[in-house]
Design goal:
Blueprint (H helix, E strand, L loop, with lengths): L18 H22 L17 E5 L2 E7 L5 E8 L2 E3 L9 E2 L4 E7 L6 E7 L4 E4 L31
Antiparallel strand pairs: 1-2, 2-6, 3-4, 3-7, 5-6, 7-8
Length: 163
């Protein structure tokens, strides 16, 4: 256990925790240790701000940017490329590298990402490397299909119909 990180505890004095709560607390501690150790390792990965074990797969717009999560368990590296605001990112640099967890999900937070920006993943695998679109994207730019850009969009509320 990391001596600088206090243990996650229950809701207060005498609080009883259920087994599933202990499991969640333990997973959260492991996740925080992984984030802490990757930040100390010298490799600068994509920000893990607003990333949690509950982060949905795909691109999810948040206040100030977007979270990105993709499942690629056999990949050696996954980079986030795209145009966010007025800035274009297309280099295989450590600051574009997503962070991999023990289940094979790669995650990152892109500050300044907005509705309508274009992104895609550069995946380095055992036998090949190249661009991949987000399989969970809510919208795609058809140019360059099948390795086209994905577009993060806000989820609009579902229409209601009179009964």
């Amino acid at each position: 256990m990391n001596p600088r990180m206090p243990p996650i505890t229950g809701a207060g004095r005498g609080a009883r925790t259920r087994p599933w709560q202990q499991s969640i607390d333990f997973r959260l501690q492991i996740f925080m240790l992984e984030v802490s150790s990757s930040c100390q390792s010298g490799t600068r990965v994509q920000s893990q701000q607003q990333i949690s074990p509950r982060t949905p797969i795909g691109a999810t717009l948040q206040a100030g940017g977007a979270t990105f999560k993709v499942w690629a368990p056999a990949a050696k590296a996954v980079y986030l490329h795209g145009v966010f605001g007025q800035d274009e990112y297309d280099q295989l640099t450590d600051d574009r590298l997503l962070q991999k967890d023990e289940r094979g999900y790669w995650t990152g937070f892109q500050e300044g990402a907005e509705d309508g920006d274009h992104y895609r993943f550069w995946v380095e695998g055992e036998g090949s490397s190249g661009y991949k679109r987000d399989a969970c994207a809510r919208e795609l730019d058809p140019d360059g299909f099948p390795n086209c850009f994905s577009i993060p969009t806000r989820i609009l509320s579902r229409p209601t119909f009179p009964t």
